[in-house]
Amino acid sequence: MFRLISSSCSRNLNRNVVFNNNNNVRGSYLLNGNNNSNNIVRKGCSFYSSGNSIEQNDDDDSVRHQLWMFGSCNDAKLGLATDHDKLLPTKVTHLPHRLRIKSAQSTWQTSCILTEDNQLFMWGTNSAGQMGLPQNQIFKFPTLSDMFKMIDIDQVHLGRSFTLILTSNKLLNNSFNKSEEQGKLLSVGSNDFGQLGLGEGMRGSSTPRVVEKLNNQELVSIGAGFDHSMAVTKSGHTFGWGYNVEGQIGQRIVEYKRVESAGENVDSMENSMTPDAEYNIPTLVPEMESIKVAKVYCGYDCSFLVSARGNVYAMGNNETGTLGVGDDKLGRVTKPTKVAMPEKVKQLSCGATHTLFLAESGRVYSCGWGSEGRLGLGDNTTNRYVPTLIPFFHENGIRVTQVSAGGAHSMVLTDEGQVYTWGCGENGKLGHNSETNSNIPQLVKSLAKRNAILIAAGIDTSMVRCSIATTSSLIDVGLAVTAPTWKCIDLPTFQRLDRTLLRLLLASLSLFSGTTTPERCPYAQLHRWVHMDIVAD
């Protein structure tokens, strides 16, 4: 169970490691204020939800992407080779020029992006080989592992010190010594708690291995928590494995027992756990067999299952209301329980102790621990035990398209390509050029004209993917590309331009409406003219 000791957003999440008679490492989750460098998780509001891995595809080949990061420099997660936190969004430059990003994530020690051509770049601290590279090394820049080059990756999710990889429905490289079948689930990194799903006695490794138990299953969704894993099949069945102390994988809960030490009982923090604390192979979640599940999201100590009908079920730690199932179910929720959402859910994201829900209407709801203003409801202390509407967006007519919950901060993306953040501001992860907390959403002004199209909140970092229209795309749509100058130009091929592309051109290439005076060509008349300042590609 979580033990809430400090309200500071700089606290650590750590395991209190003990040993049973077999000398197997076990542990229970704790919150503490200890900044000891030997902690499993270093400084920061430590959490990453696999729901933060948001995927989005662009069909326009004339658009390339940029990655911007801000927040804590710890463990080299920013990919900027800096020893200083970034209080403002900073472009990650050590990436291919024609980059097209499919998904992005930042976790406890590692960050990654998956490109649209299925290449996986990772950087940060490779403590357990989770990057498919030699262990205990720091990679300050985005690195493409030779091991991952051999895999056609469809999805990737990062846990504390392990990685889950779902391959596409194409042939695997023969180096895995597997039959050439459709997509498979691979795991790599730490296996201390069975989170790799490889079976009893299997150790962790920096080489990806196939999760054999799911070989005959066609998977559509995977998720990775702190030390637990989940997967959903095309038929809607859900499997869970790994650490289960809070019931986060929907299996039989651990039973505690007293342990005698030197003739005396040890204190309550030094409990030994039965084997039910861990499940080292994927195991069907029994309570969901009659419900078709479409997607899974994993949090630190919990998991969320979204049904094909749009209902949400949660399980795991609910001490601060993270699950949104009500204040009558505090503590462990060991069976999937329906979340009290007033609307159908389009997407959700679970942070360390709070959760964001995006409804199909575009409204945003939050629940969980209210500290540091991470819920965005205007206060810094009150917990919410059911999803509660964040009024800011509704009252200001802002439609949200993505949500992402981090360690103690929150992010949303709007349909206008704007990014809003709130919560704990330590390390600059809100992107407001300060470390001040905010209990209401605030616009990240430095990204206002960069056409953001993907967000990911990490433990103490933030990631934003922006689109850049290339010079060739301007030629393709009929814009006369000349030397940099200000002039009013016609859009002769407007009939095949949609407003999304127009907005992209305006945001990424400093195109502004109007001629020499705005009155002659107002923004509302973009159907005919734009005022432009061409920026070299």
UniProtKB/TrEMBL annotation:
RCC repeat residues: 118-169, 183-235, 236-309, 310-361, 362-416, 417-468
Keywords, comma-separated and alphabetical: Repeat
Residue span, RCC1-like domain: 181-464
Organism domain of life: Eukaryota
Pfam families, per the entry: RCC1_2 (PF13540), WD40_RLD (PF25390)
Name of this chain's protein: Regulator of chromosome condensation domain-containing protein
Lineage: Eukaryota, Amoebozoa, Evosea, Eumycetozoa, Dictyostelia
